[in-house]
Amino acid sequence: MLLSAPLPCPPPPLLRHGCRRVPAPLRASHLPPPLRVALGTARGGGGGRLPVETRCARAAAAVAVSGGGGDAGTGITAAAAATVALAVMNRVLYKLALVPMKNYPFFLAQVLTFGYVVVYFSILFVRYQAGIVTKEMLALPKSRFMLIGLLEAMGVASGMAAAAMLPGPSIPVLSQSFLVWQLILSVIVLGRKYRANQILGCLLVTTGVILSVVSGANGGSSLSDVKFFWPAVLMASSACQAGASIIKEFVFIDGAKRLEGKRPDIFVVNSFGSGFQVSLKSSLF
């Protein structure tokens, strides 16, 4: 009958010493082509080709993965372009704000810093509620934040005072001394070591700044009508801001040790630094 139970298979023949021969597993190479494909599919692709749907899905996934790098590169390029555009707008608005407020640079600097405090602490509160900022981050030593605030207060106030007395095109040139100060201070404070090409680039920037100041003092450029005092003040303000950035980097490195490998959130450093900057600037100026 068709529905009857299958007959049991005969036992394997006996070999020497009473052992029985174990039948070899069914190999796909011993089967005809249609069964070979079916067996390979049942084994998950080990002995034959995958179905058309599976191969198409894998191809689409490969295309998606390969296209992800292009999207990331485009995003980085767009972010870099937006950063450059905002930096240029910041410089232009910086000078435009000093035109009507030429005699009140310290007041303008205080207003700007107060705006930083409102923005930074608002973002810090949101990140604390979201669990990104922890109580351990907020408990970091505040003496370093106070030093950051002092350096930034001196840098912003002196920079505003000098920029009010300098012609617009000279401000970006003289502000490049920030890179030179940052390299020098990172070697002193952080013990950094730089390659020869990096030092050469720093020397080129220094040469450009010196030539700009000297040629202006000789009456050959837009600095001809400005005394040497104000370019020196602007470069000193760049030194204060470079020192603040180096202390911030030190806070990140030391904070990672205190937090067992987890770096402090950037808004913790900027918020407390700006807060001390407002308080110190109010007391100093």
UniProtKB/TrEMBL annotation:
One of its GO terms (cellular component) is membrane. The chain crosses the membrane at residues 104-126, 147-167, 173-191, 198-217, 229-253. Pfam families: CRT-like. It is a multi-pass membrane protein. It is found in: Membrane. The keyword Nucleotide-binding does not apply. Keywords: Membrane, Transmembrane, Transmembrane helix, Transport. The keyword Metal-binding does not apply. Signal peptide: none annotated. Belongs to the CRT-like transporter family. This is Protein CLT2, chloroplastic. It comes from Aegilops tauschii subsp. strangulata.
